[in-house]
Specification:
single chain; 3 helices; mainly alpha; about 70 residues
């Protein structure tokens, strides 16, 4: 049986360690690539298993005017 990894107690874990924060960062990246018309980066994201959820959230954010600026979530 494989041992469970132990998190080091001296590492501060704050709000940036949440799934929601990481998801929003990924969506903002997708929005930036879309605004920059970075086709190569968009194609790479499409190969990921989480792309459908990212694309749905990005579409909603795009309509609201979000273009992927750091910290922007509408």
């Amino acid at each position: 049986m494989k041992p469970t990894p132990v998190l080091l107690p001296d590492i501060e874990r704050g709000p940036k360690w949440t799934r929601e924060h990481m998801f929003r960062c990924a969506v903002r990246s997708l929005l930036r690539y879309r605004a920059q018309r970075n086709r190569q980066a968009l194609e790479a994201l499409k190969r990921g298993s989480h792309y459908p959820a990212l694309a749905a959230a990005a579409s909603d954010q795009w309509v609201r005017g979000n273009r992927g600026e750091p910290g922007d979530w509408r």
